[in-house]
Specification:
It is built from eight helices and 13 strands. It has 302 residues and is an alpha/beta fold. It has one domain: Ribonuclease Z/Hydroxyacylglutathione hydrolase-like (Metallo-beta-lactamase, Chain A, 4-Layer Sandwich). It has an eight-stranded mixed beta sheet. Strands 9-10-11-12-13 form a five-stranded mixed beta sheet, with no helix packed on it. Helix 6 packs antiparallel against helix 7 and helix 7 crosses helix 8. The longest helix is centred in the last third of the chain and has 24 residues. The structure holds zinc ion. Zinc ion (ZN) binds next to loops.
């Protein structure tokens, strides 16, 4: 079965498994692409894209999944890609889909890695995130989900080597969440960005986001010159598309908000700034005005 699916992947590049689509990005790198809408009972909190790097000595998963059962569902998808055990799980940030599945992976013997800032954010928001998940995916689907935190933490960089592959994990300050990191796989010219990059859907600026530094962090990712970008939401892509769907959106919102603030605008009027150039992104109606308010609140103090 595994061999058949792997052959299928090699021939066609991607295959759908339940709600996750697997895309082979390079010979040893994959994107596990979940749905781009909200968390629900079907996706078990995995409304997100995850990375997978397979080596002869084990696999590395980038982002744990949104719940214990969500992590288990991810594991099923991974088993169709490789027989290698998942040895390491990297949490690229503090959103639930980056880390709420940690307990499942620790029970499988995996070692979890995250920035110290991500762990602090996870601890701060774990009970709120569990309440939201309870409402969105349902209490029965939260079975087994307990906050569990990284075994290895780092301040700014961590090099992870396994089976002849070295991944460079970089935390350059907050973006979508305070502890966001990106994972650079130089041999594959592939970057796994977590919530630093959203493709096809509108990004979310939330209370803990830092929209100013988010642009700086994006520029660090761009400076790597990646051939492949595996985002935190949406399909694997290239740098030009990542810039269009994420950086250009955020920059437009901030520039227009700066003008509004300079002209005496307030938080009520903040929702009127023109974001129509990005109406092609999924979730525009649900998120555009909320993002405007969140950016206003941050920029008022810049
Ligand atoms: Zn996210």
């Amino acid at each position: 079965m595994t061999r058949v699916l792997t052959l299928f992947l090699l021939l066609f590049g991607s295959a759908a498994t339940a709600e996750m689509t697997v895309t082979q990005v390079t010979d040893n790198s994959y994107a596990l692409v979940g749905p781009i809408g909200n968390r629900d009972a079907e996706n078990l909190g995995n409304n997100s894209t995850h990375g997978l790097v397979v080596t002869p000595q084990g696999a590395i998963l980038i982002d744990a999944g949104g719940s214990f059962l969500g992590a288990q569902a991810l594991h099923q998808v991974i088993r169709d890609v490789t027989d290698q055990p998942v040895k390491y799980v990297i949490n690229t940030g503090g959103q639930d889909h980056r880390w709420m599945g940690n307990g499942y992976w620790k029970a499988q013997g995996a070692i979890v890695i995250a920035s110290a800032d991500a762990v602090a954010d996870q601890r701060d928001r774990s009970s709120m995130q569990l309440s939201v998940l309870d409402a969105l995916i349902g209490n029965e689907n939260l079975t087994g989900t307990e906050p569990a935190y990284a075994d290895i933490t780092f301040d700014e960089y961590y090099d992870l080597s396994l089976g002849g592959v070295t991944l460079q994990i970089q935390h350059q300050g907050g973006a979508h969440t305070p502890g966001d990191s990106y994972v650079w796989h130089p041999a594959a010219q592939t970057v796994f960005t977590g919530d630093i990059v959203y493709i096809s859907r509108m990004l979310g600026v939330i209370e803990v986001s830092d929209s100013a530094n988010w642009l700086e962090v994006f520029d660090e990712v761009a400076a790597l010159g990646p051939a492949h970008v595996v985002p935190g939401h949406g399909p694997a892509t290239d740098l030009a598309r990542a810039k269009a769907d994420t950086r250009d959106y955020l920059e437009n919102l901030r520039n227009r908000m700066r003008d509004l603030i300079d002209n005496g605008g307030d938080v009520i009027s903040s929702v009127t700034v023109d974001q129509s150039g990005f109406a092609y992104l999924a979730n525009f109606d649900q998120l555009a005005k909320r993002n405007a308010q969140a950016v206003f609140i941050q920029m008022e103090w810049e």
